Amino acid sequence: MADLEAADFDLFFSRAIDLKKRRGQGISDRSLTGRTVGLIFEKASTRTRISFQAAAAQLGGTSLFISAADTQLARDEPIADTARVLERYLDALVLRTFSQQMQEEFARIASIPVINALTDMYHPCQVLSDLMTVIEYKGNCRSVKVAWVGDGNNMANSWINAAASLGFELVLACPEGYMPDKAVLDAALGRAAGRIRVVSDPAEAVAGADVVNTDVWASMGQEQEADKRRKVFAPYQVNRALMASARKGAIVMHCLPAHKGEEITEDVFESEQSVVWDQAENKLHMHKAILEILIGGNG
Ligand code: CP
Ligand code: NVA
Question: Are the C-beta atoms of 220 and 153 separated by less than 8 Å?
Fold first, then answer.
């Protein structure tokens, strides 16, 4: 995402919005006819996996889901060898891994597009579809203030990269020791200084925000830290009191799955400000746009 220019983002947004409209009108696009997409996941997934597979199917392509544990990767076959085999079978590879380096190695070696469906470091496809949701609700994703409340995790890092390219105001409130990745932040600040800030007070981040975003306190792979994190993050809950300082009509976002009663209260999650189901739906449309733009057959 850090490599995308603002115009690249617009291409994804406009095609995803168009594909959503077309699906609503019952128009069937077949731009992936004859294309095969492989998904290799090391971590659990409901939305990302199923929306990518549904996206491929609805565009006339085929998808293959492969649990990483069932591949020879789990028995130490090198990534470089796996990539050189899979490029002979597939038109694109969608990966969900712990390691960001693993994805970058796949991408460096494979001649086919490698799509990041989440690593410990980033979740770019999620942030692309979340920005589409912001556009739907706020008319644009450039002149808005976005608050991020909670862990400086993979989602936070991808929001930072998006803000650096698109120029919207992003204020992250994270506890000491749980800040976003320093290298990601420094690179983004170099591009968008002044528009991105990290603070420790959630109320400061949310003050006047158009979009209030949160995520789980313990991400996949951090389950053993969950008890400790519950204590550290308790002041970072998105609740009615915190939402009172947001701009009138602010939306609340969560990429899901949510732990209600922890990072977000049930009443805020279920409130009219919550757009979580639209976020989840837009993953389908954005994943279609991503597959079509990267490997679609209609030019
Ligand atoms: N938001 C998201 O990536 O959800 P899944 O883990 O269910 O794919
Ligand atoms: N930060 C969360 C996002 C889940 C979609 C995780 O990595 O588990």
Answer: no
Half-sphere exposure of 94 (CA within 13 A, CB side): 31
Tell how far the Cα of 216 is from the centroid of ligand 2, in angstroms.
7
Pocket of ligand 2 (CB under 6 A): 118, 123, 153-155, 215-216, 219-220, 255
DSSP 8-state secondary structure symbol assigned to residue 233: H
Q: Which CATH number fits domain 6-122+282-295: 3.30.230.10, 3.40.190.10, 3.30.420.60, 3.40.50.1370?
A: 3.40.50.1370
In the 8-state DSSP scheme, what is residue 26?
Answer: T
What confidence tens digit (pLDDT) does each residue in 117-126 have?
999 999 999 9
| pLDDT cut 90: percent of the chain above it | 95
CATH of domain 127-279: 3.40.50.1370
Q: Do the domains at 6-122+282-295 and 127-279 have one common CATH topology?
A: yes
Residue nearest to atom 3 of ligand 1 (CA): 48
Q: Is the CB of 48 under 6 A from ligand 1?
A: yes
pTM: 0.98
